[in-house]
């Protein structure tokens, strides 16, 4: 690794860190620092990126899993949702299949899961309890991450194929749903008595984040003075989350490689600038962001 980069950000020597081209990382960071933190925006995935993949050897829930495991779902539905997870999650992380092959299957997964959830007539005012009683956990050092971005007025766009209502509740209960946070996700549509009837708008799944970004050009227009992007993701589908950014100058992509490390490491190294292997913390993203704001 370039000695200077290590000096700039000592956390990049952590054992979890892998980089294909440290020199490029260094150049990108130097260029962003020169432009100033008022030109930076952060675009992040939620499930398994801002939340932990595992804790004490046990898997942590995604937004969908928070509902699947809650009292708001009956046992039969829980079984069906678990079956869907057991069928489709191995496909999601299968590096031997192409995105083209996986895409229709992912649409199938999301569509079936949402149909099952709608049948349960979930009540809006029960969501907070489901989140409170869940084992959802944001990654270690999340407080510094959210607070630091807020203090420096750096916009944080959370772009999730999970469930917006649930993820907002997770960050609200953690006390970090600050005014600089904006969420694009699948939102629930409730009727006048507060019962779930459908999901709003276009479905977001893990392989259409590019289309989602392009539908939200208004948001990116507002941020056109911030052409420097730090992108955080855990899936190769997350790489297109910044495609709506106009006149992008620099992008630094940080990817969490949580599962099936040996099979997927090469493709992650080719796609992400910094790969964090089985790292449950936000230590490295925080160090990068502190560097970009002059360690303040
Ligand atoms: P994202 O992290 O890219 O936004 O994607 C959301 C995750 O949600 C993805 O890894 C698959 C997962 N998921 C479930 O756990 N259960 C479900 O029923 C569905 C549809 C997705
Ligand atoms: Mg994810």
TrEMBL record:
SUPFAM superfamilies per the UniProt record, alphabetical: HAD-like (SSF56784)
- A GO biological process held by the record: nucleotide metabolic process
Q: Which Gene Ontology terms cover its molecular function?
A: 5'-nucleotidase activity; magnesium ion binding; nucleotide binding
Mostly located where? cytoplasm
Q: Where in the cell is it found?
A: Cytoplasm
User: Which reactions does this protein catalyse?
Assistant: a ribonucleoside 5'-phosphate + H2O = a ribonucleoside + phosphate; N(7)-methyl-GMP + H2O = N(7)-methylguanosine + phosphate; CMP + H2O = cytidine + phosphate
For this UniProt record, the keywords arranged alphabetically read as follows: Cytoplasm, Hydrolase, Magnesium, Metal-binding, Nucleotide metabolism, Nucleotide-binding
What are the record's GO terms for cellular component? cytoplasm
EC numbers for this chain: 3.1.3.5
* Coiled-coil residue windows: none
What InterPro entries does its record include? HAD-like_sf, HAD_sf, Pyrimidine_nucleotidase_eu
The family this protein is said to belong to:
Belongs to the pyrimidine 5'-nucleotidase family.
Its function, per the record, reads: Specifically hydrolyzes 7-methylguanosine monophosphate (m(7)GMP) to 7-methylguanosine and inorganic phosphate. The specific activity for m(7)GMP may protect cells against undesired salvage of m(7)GMP and its incorporation into nucleic acids. Also has weak activity for CMP. UMP and purine nucleotides are poor substrates.
**Record text on subunit structure and interactions:** Monomer.
Report the protein name in the record: 5'-nucleotidase
Q: Which organism is it from?
A: Sparus aurata (Gilthead sea bream)
């Amino acid at each position: 690794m370039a000695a200077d980069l290590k000096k700039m950000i000592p956390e990049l020597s952590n054992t979890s860190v892998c980089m294909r081209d440290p020199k490029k990382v260094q150049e990108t960071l130097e260029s962003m620092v020169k432009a100033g933190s008022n030109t930076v925006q952060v675009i992040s995935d939620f499930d398994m990126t801002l939340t932990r993949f595992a804790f004490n050897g046990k898997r942590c829930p995604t937004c969908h899993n928070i509902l699947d495991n809650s009292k708001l779902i009956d046992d039969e539905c829980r079984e069906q949702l678990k079956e869907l997870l057991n069928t489709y999650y191995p496909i999601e992380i299968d590096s031997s299949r192409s995105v083209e092959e996986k895409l229709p299957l992912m649409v199938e997964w999301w569509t079936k899961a949402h149909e099952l959830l709608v049948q349960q007539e979930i009540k809006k005012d029960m969501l907070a309890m489901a989140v409170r009683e869940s084992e959802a956990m944001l990654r270690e050092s999340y407080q510094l991450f959210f607070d630091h971005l807020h203090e420096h007025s750096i916009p944080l766009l959370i772009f999730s194929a999970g469930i917006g209502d649930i993820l907002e509740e997770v960050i609200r209960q953690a006390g970090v749903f600050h005014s600089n946070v904006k969420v694009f996700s699948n939102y629930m549509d409730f009727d006048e008595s507060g019962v779930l009837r459908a999901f709003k708008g276009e479905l977001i799944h893990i392989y259409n984040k590019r289309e989602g970004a392009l539908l939200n050009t208004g948001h990116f227009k507002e941020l056109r003075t911030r052409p420097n992007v730090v992108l955080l993701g855990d899936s190769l589908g997350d790489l297109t989350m910044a495609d709506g950014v106009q006149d992008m100058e620099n992008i630094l992509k940080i990817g969490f490689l949580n599962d099936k490390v040996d099979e997927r490491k090469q493709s992650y190294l080719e796609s992400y600038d910094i790969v964090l292997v089985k790292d449950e913390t936000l230590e490295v993203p925080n160090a990068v962001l502190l560097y970009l704001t002059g360690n303040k």
